[in-house]
Amino acid sequence: MQEPEFTETKSSETTMTDINNQSGTITKLQPPVQSQEQWLKYGEQISSFLGTLPEYLGNFFNQYKQPLVSVGLIVGSIVAVKVLLAILDSLNDIPLVAPTFELIGIGYSAWFVYRYLLKASTRKELTNEITTLKSQVVGKNSPE
After folding, report:
1. Is residue 123 within 8 Å of residue 117, measured between CB atoms?
2. How many CB atoms lie within 10 A of CB 125?
3. Average pLDDT for residues 26-38, to the nearest whole number?
4. Which has the least CB within 10 A, 58, 70, 114, 144?
5. Cα dist. 76→17, 39, 73 in Å?
6. Percent of the chain as helix, strand, coil, to the nearest 5
7. CB neighbours of 144 closer than 8 A, spacing ≥ 6?
8. Closest-CA residue to 144 (of 125, 126, 131)
9. What is the Cα–Cα distance from 122 to 111, expressed in whole angstroms?
10. Can you give the pTM of this predicted structure?
11. pLDDT for residue 29 is more than 90
């Protein structure tokens, strides 16, 4: 059996010029030179931007108050619904909580039907309560 012959290839590292051209000495790379004036100019630009930022934000908010409030309410309601669903999902994982809530819901539904929907007089009472609540929310007097 013959052993395979290996050919030596030069890597890109050996073809690059060596920074340390003498053995035992390390040359230091100098940091890029930027004048102090450029840094002061950058600082002044940042300072002027941060100084006028509250005025820009105030004008922006005053100009777009209604859309911003609407978007905020929509995002807030989406977050609230997601949190509520996460809480209900975690409650569903607890043993005996889901069946207990179902029994409570069935009991309340049965009581509501017995209290408001079986007799005509109680149905009229329910419609009066609904119209009163609607007029309180809308702010108009209900026509009776």
Report:
1. yes
2. 13
3. 69
4. 144
5. 60, 42, 5
6. 70, 0, 30
7. 131
8. 131
9. 13
10. 0.43
11. no
Task: Locate 21 and state its tokens.
Answer: 């051209």
Cα separation, 32 vs 72, whole angstroms: 46
Helix ranges (H only) for 16-64 are 36-63
DSSP 22: S
Tokens matching residue 92: 């569903």
75-111 burial, b for 16+ CB within 10 Å, e for fewer?
Answer: eeeeeeeeeeeeeeeeeeeeeeeeeeeeeeeeeeeee
pLDDT band at 11 (very low <50, low <70, confident <90, very high): low
Which has the higher per-residue pLDDT, 53 or 19?
A: 53
Cα–Cα distance, 105 to 127 (Å, whole number): 22
Token couple for 7:
């050919």
The tokens of 76 are what? Answer: 């807030």
What is the tens place of the pLDDT at every residue in 124-138? 999 999 999 999 999
C-beta separation of 94 from 102 below 8 A: no
